[in-house]
Specification:
Strand content: 5-15%
Order of helices and strands: HEHEHEHEEEHHEHEHEEEHEHH
CATH topology of the domain at 3-24 and 126-317: TIM Barrel
CATH class of the domain at 3-24 and 126-317: Alpha Beta
Structural class: alpha/beta
Distance between the termini: 42 Å
CATH superfamily of the domain at 3-24 and 126-317: Metal-dependent hydrolases
Number of strands: 12
CATH architecture of the domain at 3-24 and 126-317: Alpha-Beta Barrel
Largest sheet: 8 strands, parallel
Helix content: 25-40%
Number of helices: 11
């Protein structure tokens, strides 16, 4: 287990203990039948010629992850639509995902992979944007390209990078982030200042380990509060489940304090549901992941639940319904 996971568990364990003294534990759950839009799944097919750059062959999830398989595990939880987030740095895979999305109406869109400021960025952005299922791009500290790791904090200083982000905003598209850590949060704050109209979605923020040193920790939460001042910034409550000693923690109270901290900073209008399927299968089944999230969110108001499970996803991604059961504002 990685150190960041141990720190995350320690923080959540402490939070769960403190939570026993709060009113949340005694609050009645609000049970609703809500259509769900899953804003974070990955699509790939290792059986394609040439294989895939991720996941590796020795990974337990190394098998086709396609919409029919996804629908089978997600439909019982009330999921009526999903957004695919690209999990490949190969430019050609943007079109492959778009083709898969177009063929399966359960998919309401996809977030691709482009490097702002690169040689063909504007041409590729224009071409992909012509497809209404293309919702934006993801960038952060995810891929190694040409021998160097993506690093948003450093890449912001490269010629044309910020202009590329402004072009994304001008096109009405979204920027998803990747692999949260305090350095990335600082970089995202710089993005929000340089391109304040750009809609941004911070992926997997519950998985980010806040610094333990007091001054650094205070700075981290100050950065999040500043980000939250931008009405175009959203947060996915994703990558939540944790295992301790081989056992999955399924009680929502275990997670509530850390999730409440993020919910309180960003507010009910800016938080989204994302499962991270099938990457989430490393820790929990889809039903288990959704059960944890549903148990936590059930303590929120009826309107807040609607916002979390589908309304906010429209504000963040501006996706269009493709089936009668997919909700409309």
């Amino acid at each position: 287990m990685q150190r960041r996971d141990l720190l995350k568990m320690a923080a959540m364990t402490a939070g769960a203990a403190a939570l026993q003294e709060t009113a949340w534990a005694a609050a009645p759950a609000v049970s609703l039948s809500i259509p769900v839009i899953d804003t974070h799944i990955h699509l790939f097919d290792p059986l394609r010629p040439g294989g895939v750059p991720w996941p590796p062959k020795d990974d337990a999830i190394y098998e086709p992850a396609l919409p029919p398989r996804y629908a089978k595990v997600s439909a019982p939880e009330g999921v009526v639509g999903a957004i695919a987030v690209e999990c490949s740095p190969l430019g050609s895979d943007n079109q492959w995902v778009l083709n898969v999305v177009a063929a399966h109406p359960v998919m309401v869109g996809m977030v691709g992979d482009l490097v702002p400021g690169s040689a063909h960025y504007e041409r590729d952005l224009e071409r992909l944007h012509a497809d209404p299922h293309f919702l934006g791009i993801r960038y952060g500290n995810l891929w190694e390209r040409n021998g160097a790791q993506d690093d948003l904090a450093a890449d912001l200083g490269k010629p044309g990078f910020v202009d590329g982000l402004k072009a994304l905003a001008a096109a009405g598209l979204v920027l998803d982030s990747a692999n949260p850590d305090p350095r990335l949060m600082e970089a995202l704050l710089r993005v929000s200042q340089a391109a304040p109209e750009l809609r941004m979605v911070i992926d997997h923020l519950p998985h980010c380990t806040a610094p333990t040193e007091a001054a650094a920790r205070a700075q981290y939460w100050s950065t999040l509060r500043e980000l939250a001042q931008n009405p175009h910034v959203f947060v996915k409550l994703s990558e939540i489940p944790v295992r301790q000693k081989g056992r999955l923690e399924t009680d929502p109270r275990f997670y509530a304090a850390s999730l409440d901290a993020l919910w309180d900073v960003f507010g009910e209008d800016h938080v989204l549901f994302g499962s991270d399927w099938p990457n989430s299968d490393h820790v929990a089944s889809y039903a288990q992941t959704f059960g944890i999230v549903r148990g936590y969110v059930s303590r929120k108001s009826a309107e807040a639940q609607q916002k979390f499970f589908w309304k906010n996803s429209i504000a963040a991604y501006r996706w269009q319904p493709r089936r009668a059961d997919q909700p409309r504002l």
